[in-house]
UniProtKB/TrEMBL annotation:
One Pfam family per UniProt: NUDIX
Keyword field: Hydrolase
Name assigned to this protein: Nudix hydrolase domain-containing protein
Superkingdom of the organism of origin: Bacteria
Gene Ontology molecular-function annotations: hydrolase activity
Family: Belongs to the Nudix hydrolase family.
Matches recorded under PROSITE patterns: NUDIX, NUDIX_BOX
UniProt domain Nudix hydrolase: residue ranges: 38-168
PANTHER family tied to this protein: ADP-RIBOSE PYROPHOSPHATASE (PTHR43736), DIHYDRONEOPTERIN TRIPHOSPHATE DIPHOSPHATASE (PTHR43736:SF1)
Gene3D superfamilies, alphabetized: Nucleoside Triphosphate Pyrophosphohydrolase
């Protein structure tokens, strides 16, 4: 994973691998920049009513046309809860309320025509105003409620299956 980045983003000198603490890191031998490689934080909205879940259809790569949980990447200085509310406003035109934290799910994003990034998916339990009219826009083309026992065939990412599995387990306990 570490070798896919070759040049310092500050001064464009070729990176070297250097032992730092317990791991080898990409370090710039000229300016000293250390390229720490962490998962990118993304927020995912679990919007569940009874036995149904709201999923959105992706209009952009990767996984165009598949069903995803609403959400997106957190901006650099943004609190994840704010990112969650912002993404739901952008994608569905609704003012959502974050009700609680559900869990963290690791996954990969990208691939096909480019490198992948590790993603830290932050799942929140979210509610929408009861009368909210969903207006799919931005990077999604549709939004629909699905029965948790009859999900669509094409789910965008592995983490969605894992989170739904955990939700179902929690319900049984
Ligand atoms: Zn540098």
């Amino acid at each position: 994973m570490k070798k896919q980045y070759r040049y310092c983003p500050i001064c464009a000198t070729k990176f070297v691998l250097r032992q730092l603490y317990d791991e080898k890191q990409l370090v710039c031998p000229k300016c000293g920049y250390i390229f720490w490689q962490n998962a990118k934080p993304a927020v995912c909205g679990f919007i569940i009513r009874g036995n149904t879940i709201l999923l959105v259809r992706r209009a952009v790569p990767p996984a165009t046309g598949t069903w995803d949980v609403p959400g997106g990447f957190v901006k650099e200085h943004e609190h994840p809860e704010k990112a969650m509310v912002r993404e739901l406003q952008e994608e569905l035109g609704v003012r959502a309320t974050v009700k609680g934290f559900f869990g963290f799910y690791m996954d990969l994003y990208g691939g096909h025509n480019g490198p992948t990034s590790a993603v830290l998916n932050i799942y929140y339990l979210v509610s929408l105003p009861p009368s909210a009219r969903l207006q799919p826009t931005d990077d999604i083309s549709d939004a629909r409620w699905f029965s948790l026992s009859r999900l669509p065939k094409h789910i965008s990412f592995k983490h969605i299956h894992e989170a739904i599995r955990d939700w179902k387990r929690g319900k049984k306990e």
